[in-house]
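Late entry, evening session. Most of the bench is empty. Finally got around to the prediction I had been postponing all week. Sequence below, unchanged from the version circulated by S.P.
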Amino acid sequence: MRKVDMTARPAAARLEVENLSLQFGGVKALDGVSLDVAPGSITALIGPNGAGKTSAFNAISGFYKPKTGTVRLDGVDITAVPARSRAKLGLARTFQNIALFRGMTVLDNIKLGRHAHLRSNVLDALFYYGRARREEMQLREEIERDVIDFLELDHIRNVPVAILPYGLQKKVELARALAMRPRILMLDEPVAGMNREETEDMARAILDVRDEWGVTVLLVEHDMGMVMDISDHICVLNFGRRIAAGTPAEVRSNDDVIRAYLGSAAEAPRVEAA
C-alpha cells in the first residue's frame, strides 16, 4: 500500500462510552456498558451472538437512541447528535451486511462516503456548475489518490460492485468509510464470510489504516485469530453486559471470557508475540 500524506488529516480521536443502556420492549440489549477507545488504537468488541455488540455499534454511531448513558468524542458529548452529524464529526462505520449500491461502480460507491462533507447546495448540484463541479473534480482526485491507490483498488475502480467477489466488496465498503475522512473508524464484522487469504488482506488493511492514516479503530469481529493478532485492547460483552476488558493476553486468560465465549483455555486462540 502507498504511503499517505498525513499533513491534511485530522488527529485520531478518543471515543468514550459510559453506562450505555438500550432496551427493546422487555429485552435489555445493553445494560450499563462502558468503553474507552484510546486515540490511534485498535479496540475490538467481542462476545457471543446476541451479546449486544451490534446494538452498541448502532447506539455509538447514532442509529439507536440509548435509554441511558453517554457517548463522547474527544470529551464532547455527542449522545444526542444525529447519525449524519456524527459522520461530519469524523465517526465513520461499515455494516455487518454489505451496504453498497450494487448497480454503481466502485468509484461512485466510494465517492458517496464524502457527501456528508460537501458544501454545494441543491441548485449547484442540479445544474452541475460552479462550486458543485469544482467539488466533484476535487473529490474524485482525492479519492483516487488517497483511498483507491492506498487500498490497491485501481484495477476495479470502474467495475460495477455487483460483479465483484465478496472479499473485494467488503474492501470497497472500507474504502467508502475512509472517504469520509474518519477520526474514528467503526468496523462491524469486517472479515465475516471471508476466506483465509481475504481475512489476512483485510487485517493488513486495518493495521495500515491505523498506522498510516492515524485513525482510531473500533471493530466487532468473531474471528478470534485476527482479533488477538491486531487489537491493542479488547472489550467483551455477554447478555448486554461488559464482562471483561484488557489486552489480548489478559482477555484470553480471563475465566469469565473462556466460559462465556472462547471455550477451554486449550481451545482459545493463540496470541502472537509482538
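Two things to note before I forget:
The radius of gyration is 19 Å.
The longest strand covers residues 27-37.
Will write this up properly tomorrow.
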